[in-house]
Amino acid sequence: MIRCRIVLGALLVLTAATARATRPNLIFILTDDQRYDTLGVTGNTFIETPNLDQLANDGVFFANASVNSAICTPSRACYFLGQYERRHGINFNSGTAMVPEAWQKSYPMVLRDHGYFTGYIGKNHVPIGERAYDTGLIDESFDFWYAGHAHLRFYPKRHHEIFRHARADTQIEILEEGTMSFLRTDRDFIAGANAFLRHRPPGQPFALTIAFNVPHGAAASTMELRPSDPELYRTTYRDRLDALPLPLNYVARNLIRTPKLPPDVLYAEFRQKGYNYVDTPETLRERLVRQAQLITGVDRFVGALRATLASEGLAENTIIVFTSDHGIMNGEWGLGGKALNYEACLRVPLIIYDPRQPEDRRGRRSMALAESVDIAPTLLDYAGIDIPDTMQGRSLRPVVEGLVEDIREASFAENLWSTYFGNPRIESVRTHEWKCIRYFKNDRSLFANVDPKNPYPVLPEQVEAYARWLTASIRGEQPVYEELFHLPSDPQENVNLAGRPAYQAVLERMRAECQRLVTLAKGDLDTPPATIVVPGIREGTTRPPRSTSGPVPE
């Protein structure tokens, strides 16, 4: 059953109700696999997103925001902790979970410790404690918890007991019920969920995280177009299916002549079968129309959220941050999935809306090089809380308020999810003009003992390899392949300039910057991440799988 408790000790942090009322409420909305180019404000003319476009027009839209890791679990840990993966050490192939002491330095826990009423709704994809997702620590650490571990899919009731009392059957609408129950104090919205009769105390500021599992394939691929589904998910956009644009550099599988990456860098033949929909225009369009429906569903959720904030008298003091955990490849050069450092995977929409901002500071488009590690310190900054020294990101509040144009000269990203599925280890650095991507040895011998029928369990040799990879390039390992792109003239990253003599000086400069940033990301080489190895860890649980098919860690 949904749990909603009031931590009395938190009420003692602030000395007066008037002091509490002056602190802004915070809402952080995180979608799943949503690319930058999926909003009207980013130029998309197919997907209808009027509410998100309005949120951007009322706030600040970050046009150069990127994630630090383009795979679900490490990216979400980056958001929670404000740390790069090389520091927090959490991934599907790490075999580890975050220790409770590290979790206490996450933005929700710091906010709670400073008097905020905290809520979490949706998908959790970060393991914590000695039993990972089964520990229960994260569930118990929020004042209001209405979430499931790992994928929610399109019909969450099938997979997560916590959602069984919801009136709706579809994910976005179930999470909307939970959100309205958090915000509304007049009645219980979800039948049978008596815990909702106790709500956040009046006057106490709240911090609510809403984490969707859409437009992720776990939701899009499980849509059944039931007659009982909202019409949005059955018919919308289907009359324009043939007009749905494919990426400019889309290549169908049977037309690939020259692979984007050398075959010993990216073992494309081992790609997860769940991404085979990119192989033909027809199957890709079917997936894209489902993604479009889900994104419009999120957009309508945002509209309902803002309307409820207004009706509850909360709109003028509630800051909203909207972004995604990463993007995804939609058949560019024939590639599918994520865990690559191309813009399609790294670049995400980011909107920060502060209703207290003067009119002349709203509706701006910032070109600042924002990163996912910046969200946690930004939220704490708005709450008036000192940013812990464990956080590596920087507050974006000065950018929102027009005090500075940027907070860094270059952004960093990495991929350490190098697994049976063929993805390489990657480090990349991006400036406003240049992008350098460095690929490291993709050692297939690590997966010699992997069962191809059940390739997801993390073997001891993979855990050991991941631990080495955290410092390998800093200790001297050299890349086996490099790419260099001039983004203003080549935003699609089609032309690799790394091998051209005229660009060697630029390449050397970008190499040095990448090495500087990866060293900063790791910190002290001899200090391991604040993690614990969890034997048998799997996505969402440590319990043995019910079948040999295994989960799909995406």
Explain how this protein is built:
This protein is α/β, with parallel strands linked by helices and 554 residues long. The protein has 15 helices and 17 strands. It has helices at 17-22, 50-58, 72-81, 85-88, 100-103, 107-113, 137-141, 171-183, 217-220, 281-311, 343-346, 375-382, 397-400, 460-472, 504-522, and strands at residues 3-4, 25-31, 60-62, 96-98, 117-124, 144-149, 206-211, 318-324, 329-330, 336-337, 350-353, 364-366, 411-415, 425-430, 434-440, 481-486, 531-533. The strands form 4 sheets. Strands 1-6-5-7-2-8-11-3-12 form a 9-stranded mixed beta sheet, sandwiched between helices. A 4-stranded antiparallel beta sheet has the order 13-14-15-16, with helices on one face. Strands 4-17 form a two-stranded antiparallel sheet.
Whole-Å distance between the termini?
28 Å
CATH superfamily of the largest domain: Alkaline Phosphatase, subunit A
The proportion of residues in beta strands is 5-15%
Mean pLDDT: 93
Low-confidence stretches: 4-21, 192-197, 547-553
Q: What is the CATH top level name of the largest domain? A: Alpha Beta
Biggest sheet: strands side by side, in what order?
1-6-5-7-2-8-11-3-12
